[in-house]
Amino acid sequence: MGLNNHIFDFHTEVSKGLVPKHTLVHKFGQNLDIDTTTDPETVWSAGGLYTFPSSADTLKIISNDADDNGTGTTGALTIKVQGLDANYGLIEEDFTLNGQTAVTGSKNFIRVFRAFVTSAGSSELNEGTITINNSDDSLTLATIPALHGQTQMAVYTIPANHKAYLTSFSASMSKATPSAAIVLEMIFRKDGVKRVKQNISIDTTGSTSFIKEFKMPLPIEEKTDVYVNAKEVSQNNSGVFSNFALVLVEQSEKYQ
User: What is the pTM of this model?
Assistant: First the structure.
């Protein structure tokens, strides 16, 4: 019950910033080309299995299109990268792009879970694929696909001093002909241990999408990596999409 006997929706009030210590996290990803010989793959735009860094490092960012340039007039000019620092605290850093020449950051990230264009020229989007690597280019942490303006990665890590509550998990796939099927696994990873916590199986002869809402949200501890892998794909060139939503709660004494 809310003001003047009106019933308020909890998630809407969290989105408004009216519920102390609570925030909503929506993660979504795509992997548009999974083959029978390469599965499993993580649902993220770079393709292949996602590898989590073992230590914090500065970032190196580059586009494959010269028009994604802070001094340009058409593509992406600047981006913001969000993730976690060495202590798993929330961190973000702004970058001015330099086209096909890499730019480097000054902050150390142990996780990157989102990046998006913050200013652009006439196209209003990044014209090329923007790749976010660690400092020596040995690990790709995220990509912003061309013409998307934001990362597409069903990957997230719970910050330190927070607990998350999984409220929904969904997936869909695309494959014209012949018919195709695929299995999606949501994995929790912490302290060197992986646990498959949810499974979805979809196919193009029946339902090509599935959504699960959690009436009793599933709790997730701090510093847990949450991500979605696709496996058992039955046809080459299959595309898959996945989304999940979390309520993130800062763990002060009142909210533990």
Answer: 0.91
